[in-house]
Amino acid sequence: MRPLAEHLRSLIALEGPVTVERYMDLCLRHYYAARDPLGAAGDFTTAPEISQMFGELIGLWMLEVWHAIGRPNPCRVVELGPGRGTLMADLLRAARLLPDFRAAASVHLVETSPALRQRQRAALASSGYRVDWHGGLAEVPPGPTLLVGNEFFDALPVRQFVATERGWCERLVGLGGDGLVFGLRAEPESDLPTPLRLGDVLEWPAAAMSVVTDLSRRLAGQGGAALIVDYGYWGPAFGDTLQAVKNHAFVDPLQEPGAADLTTHVDFRRLAQAASDAGARVHGPSTQADFLLALGIETRTASLKQRATPGQGAGLDRALARLTERGRTGMGELFKVLALTRKDLESVPGLPASSPLPAKT
Ligand code: SAH
After folding, report:
1. Ligand 1 close to Cβ of residue 157 (< 6 A)
2. Is the alpha carbon torsion for 291, 275, 79, 83 positive or negative?
3. Is the distance from CB of 287 to CB of 335 less than 8 angstroms?
4. CA dist., res. 169 & res. 189, Å (int)
5. From 32, 288, 335, mutation site for ligand 1 pocket: most ligand atoms within 8 A of C-beta
6. What H or E segment, with its residue span, contains residue 155?
7. Three-state SS at 236
8. Can you tell me the distance from the alpha carbon of 140 to that of 78, in angstroms, rounded to the nearest whole number?
9. Is 202 in the pocket of ligand 1 (CB under 6 A)?
10. Is 106 in the pocket of ligand 1 (CB under 6 A)?
C-alpha cells in the first residue's frame, strides 16, 4: 500500500490544505483497514480487553432493558465498532441466562475494518447466534434495538476551529518545510458566534452527531436503548483534544499519518443534545466507575474469585481497580456512560434518570 504520507502530500500539493476532519478521516480509514490495533502488542487497550466483566455487565444491562421494554421479538443486538468482538462475546455469554432473549436476538456488528471483521467472526463463531456485519447503522434491519458502542465515537473525525481576532477559523493540515503542519483558513466561519478568548479551540463532532441523530430516530420510532461508553466530558469546553497514540504512547498527530490511532475526547453534551433533538430520552451521563459499581462489578469480581486460582484472583482485583480507577486520568472517571432510549422508558439500570440538558442551542 502506498504510504498515506505520500498520498497526503500530493493531495495537498494539488488541492491545497485539508481540514482536520478530512485529515482524520483519511488517517483513520487507513489505520483501521489493515490492522488489529488492540492489546499489549498493539497501540491501545480497551475496557473489554481488560476484563470479561465489562461485557458481562453490559449483557446483564441489556437483559434488564429488554425486559423493561416488553421483551420484543425480534430484537436487534447491535454494536458500533466492535474491535476484537470481545465485548459482544462476553455480553452474549451473560445473556444465555435468559433463553427467551436468545431466541429473540439477532446480532449486528457495524464495522468498517476488514481486518477486525475477521477477528470478530472468530470471536463469535461459537456464540450460537447469527451475526451480520454492516458498514453503517442504516443497514441494520428495522426493529427494536439494543445497542452498545465502546470507544467508537472517539474514533470519528471532528472539525476544529481556532479563535482568532477575525473570528473562528477552521484548522487545516498543510505542507511545511519538512512535513505536515497545522494551519488556519484565512476566512472565519460566518455562522459561529464571536469567540470570547483568543486561542480557544472549538471541536465540532459532525460525524458523531449524525450517528447519534440516526440512532435516536431509530430508537424513538422502533423502541430500544443504546449505551455509549467513551472518554470525554460534558461541554461546553474549548480545547484541542486531538491525540495520536502508537504502542501505548502519545505521538505527534501529524508525524506518521495512518500509522497511529487518532482520536478526540467526546463531548457528551453535544451527543445528548443531538439525541434529545431527534426525539430520544437521555439517561446519564455517569462516570464508568459509578456505572460499573452500580451494576455490581464488585460482587461479580468476588464471585469470579471464588472459582479462581490466587493468581487469577489478583488479576481480577487489578482489572476491577483499573476499570473503576478515579482521578482525572483514571479510566473510571475519564470514561463516561450515556444511555439513549425511546421517550417512554423512564430509567435504565446503573444511570441517573436524566441529564441536565440546556434549552436547544
Ligand atoms: N469497541 C472496541 C474497539 C474500539 S476501537 C473495544 O472496546 O475494544 C474502534 C472500533 O471502531 C474499531 O473496531 C474500528 O474498526 C471501528 N470503527 C472506526 N471507525 C468506524 C466507522 N466509521 N464505522 C464503523 N466502525 C468504525
Report:
1. no
2. negative
3. yes
4. 6
5. 32
6. none
7. coil
8. 8
9. no
10. no
Question: Cβ(144) to ligand 1 under 6 A?
Answer: no
Quick one: pLDDT at residue 177?
87
Q: Which residues of the chain have pLDDT under 70?
A: 1-2, 355-361
For ligand 1, say whether the CB of 286 is within 6 Å of any of its atoms.
Answer: no
DSSP state of 135: S
pLDDT at residue 357, as a whole number: 63
For residue 12, the SS3 value is helix
Distance CA 14, CA 33 (A): 25
Question: What are the DSSP E strand ranges found in 10-152?
Answer: 18-19, 75-80, 105-110, 131-134, 145-150
Give burial (CB, 10 Å; 0-12/13-18/19+) of 54: buried
Q: From the CB of 110, is ligand 1 less than 6 Å away?
A: yes
User: Do residues 149 and 80 make contact, with C-beta atoms less than 8 angstroms apart?
Assistant: yes
Q: Give the model's pLDDT for residue 34.
A: 81
User: How far is 107 from 124, CA to CA, in rounded Å?
Assistant: 10
Reported as a single tens digit per residue, the pLDDT across 80-96 is 999 999 999 999 999 99
The pTM score is: 0.97
**Grid cell at residue 119:** 477477528
Cα of 260 to ligand 1 centre, how many Å?
14
Predicted pLDDT of residue 231 = 97
Give the whole-angstrom CA distance, residue 58 versus residue 178.
Answer: 47
C-beta of 116 in contact with ligand 1 (< 6 A): yes
Cα 239 to middle of ligand 1, angstroms: 24
